[in-house]
Structure formats: structure tokens, C-alpha cells
Fold:
Amino acid sequence: MFAPGSRITSLTVPGSLRYIHCAGDLFHTLYSIEGELVGSELREIFYSESKTILYELFSNASNHSRSDRVTFTFGFAEDHLAIEVVTRGNGFLLKEIHTENNSERVPLKYAVPFPADLAGKRITVYRDSEYEVLCHVNSSTLLDFELIPFDNPNVNSDDVPEHYGLLLLTRLAREVFYRRNDDGSDSFWIRKFYKKG
Amino acid sequence: MFYSTVEESGILFITLTTKRATADVSREFKEFLVSEIDNNGRQKMVIDFAAVEFVDSSFLGAVVSGLKKITGVKGDIKILSLQPPVRAMFQLTRLYKVFEIFDNKQDAIQSF
Structure:
């Protein structure tokens, strides 16, 4: 997942939310060194968005995987930043949400490894009045996520969700993947390109 | 403690005193908001973000939980003094359409 020539740095911390700032602080330091790769006009925005991605990845890892360790790896390539978060605990639980297509039945949940007949399917995992996040099931162990914008400006507190993790990841990064690795660990990783985000 | 409170004109002002309002404190903050609404009958709150340089979605989720709770008793939560990165998060999550956001305290008070 890391492009050849990427400058790679890893950090492993306990899975507790008390350590949430460790990765953020390391990223801050790395960005002060590597940030020159990003155009100067966009440098602050890119930093802020990458930091948001990082915190979402940590929150997901800590809240859902219940892993006792979380390993972050940052790869600064010529044209993009890649971040991988590896946990050892509960894998990603693929949860369908209610839509007009499944309003007559209970939304489905799938634990990794995902059923073979799911391969090639797209599942809605987030929706509000402006965006939908689709999960593409590539195989029993590999998912990627795609943001689909709607054209509906009406938002009120009744339809505002309280969980934005997948929305933010897909809004701020061009590529978002989940994979169950051969050694039983789980990876979430993103790629964020310097010029187009 | 990452916040302080003071009551003024029947409004509970909650001033966040942390630079980073994130997942590690979001549960505690949600419980505080819910407790103020359920146990103390609060219907008017202002959350002052002036000291906050970074906020994540978990913390915003806690504030949304508070909003949903307080609107159920015909109350409201207003937001005060967002720094640019925090304002950007309100825009990314579109919460700027849900909350009234003010740059000064007097406007927030008069909005109730």
C-alpha cells in the first residue's frame, strides 16, 4: 500500500483513547519535516484534514476493534500521504443502514471474513440528506469506501447522525480501504493526494 | 476538567478549556450535557469553543446528542467562538446548518 520511495514512519501505542494524541503529535512532527511536499498554499488545509483523518482512524480502532495495541504507519510519497492503522481485535463489522431499498427488512450485518456471495456488491453504510457512503466488497477480506453526494440541502437535527467517521474519511481522503490481513490483523488505510485531496 | 460553567441570564455557559476536544473526553461531555438537561432542567446552553484548536467527530457527536436531548424539551444549544479549524469541522459535518453559531456572547444571549 505504500508507494515505492515513500518515507515511512511507524508508531505503536496502547489501544486506549487516552493515547489518542500520541499519533497526532507524531504526525505534527513529521509534517513539519515532510510538509514541503505539499504546495505552500494548501499546506495548512492538508495538515488539518490529515489530522482529522488520523483522529477518526484512532477513534474507530479504539472504540470498535478493542485491540490492545494500535499501530500507525505514515508514508509520505511524492504525490500523496498514506496512513495505515493496524489493530488486532474485532475486525470491521460491515453494517448496512436503513434505506428505501431495505425498509421492509432488518439491515444486514457481516463480520469479516465476509460471505463469498457478497463479493462485488455495494452496501450503504452511511447516509444523511447530503451524502451517502457506499462500501464496495472486493473480496471476503477487502473493502473500499466511496462517497456519493446528494443534492438536498435540507438538514435538521432529526436527521443528523452522531457518528461521522466514514463520512469524514471518504470526504477527506481519495482512497479508503479496509483489509483483514493474512496474519489475522486488520488494516484501515487511506491515501490523500497533495493537490486534489 | 476540560470545561467550566457559569450561569448567566438563565443560560448555562459552558466554556471548553482544552485545546483538543476529542474522543477521549467526548463520553464525559455527553454525560454532562445529558445530566444538565435531565437532572437540572436546563433548556438554554451556550458552548464556548474559543480555546479549542481541534475538534474531532466523536466530540461533535456528543454535542449533537446534547442538542437532540435538549430540543426534546423545547430547549436549544448555541455555539460560540469557533477557531478556523473547528469551524471547518462544523462545515465538513454540516453541523453549521443545525447549530446557531455566534462570534460574540451578547449575540448568543439575545438569540434565545
Summary: Chain A touches chain B through 31 residues (CB under 8 Å).
